[in-house]
C-alpha cells in the first residue's frame, strides 16, 4: 500500500473524494498519488492533511508521508 493510501484508508478512513477535499486537490490527483503516477505532494498539501488529522483527533506522525508503518507495507 502506498504511503498516501495508508494515510487515507488507515488513518482517516475516508474515500478519495473526501481526502481530495482535505488536501485541496481533485480525486484523480489522489488516485495518481496512490498509484505513484503523480508528483509528490506539496508542503501546503501535507500541512492541510496534518491539520485535518489533528482537528479530527486522529493519531498522527509526519513520517507517514515518507514511510508508512510496517503493517501498511
Explained architecture:
The chain has helices at 3-12, 16-23, 27-35, 43-55. With 73 residues, the chain is mostly helical. It has a single domain (3-65), classed as 434 Repressor (Amino-terminal Domain) (Orthogonal Bundle), CATH 1.10.260.40. Helix 2 (16-23) crosses helix 3 (27-35). The longest helix is centred in the last third of the chain and has 13 residues, at 43-55. The mean pLDDT is 91. It holds the Pfam family HTH_3. Residues 4-36 form the HTH cro/C1-type domain. One of its GO terms (molecular function) is DNA binding. This is XRE family transcriptional regulator.
Q: How is the biggest beta sheet arranged?
A: none
Average residue-wise pLDDT:
91
Poorly predicted residue ranges = none
Assign the CATH architecture. Orthogonal Bundle
Please write the string of helix (H) and strand (E) elements: HHHH
What would CATH call the class? Answer: Mainly Alpha
Rg, nearest Å: 11 Å
Can you tell me the overall shape? globular
Q: State the end-to-end distance.
A: 6 Å
In helices, the fraction of residues equals 40-55%
Helix count from the secondary structure assignment: 4
Report the β-strand fraction as a percent range.
Answer: under 5%
Task: Tally the beta strands.
Answer: 0
Structural class by helix and strand composition: mainly alpha
Say which CATH homologous superfamily is assigned.
lambda repressor-like DNA-binding domains
- Give the tally of structural domains: 1
GO molecular function: DNA binding
Protein name: XRE family transcriptional regulator
Domain HTH cro/C1-type: 4-36
Amino acid at each position: 500500500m502506498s504511503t498516501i493510501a495508508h494515510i487515507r484508508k488507515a488513518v482517516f478512513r475516508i474515500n478519495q473524494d473526501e481526502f481530495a477535499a482535505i488536501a485541496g486537490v481533485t480525486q484523480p490527483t489522489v488516485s495518481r498519488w496512490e498509484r505513484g503516477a503523480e508528483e509528490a505532494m506539496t508542503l501546503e498539501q501535507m500541512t492541510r492533511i496534518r491539520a485535518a488529522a489533528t482537528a479530527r483527533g486522529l493519531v498522527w506522525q509526519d513520517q507517514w508521508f515518507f514511510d508508512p508503518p510496517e503493517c501498511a507495507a
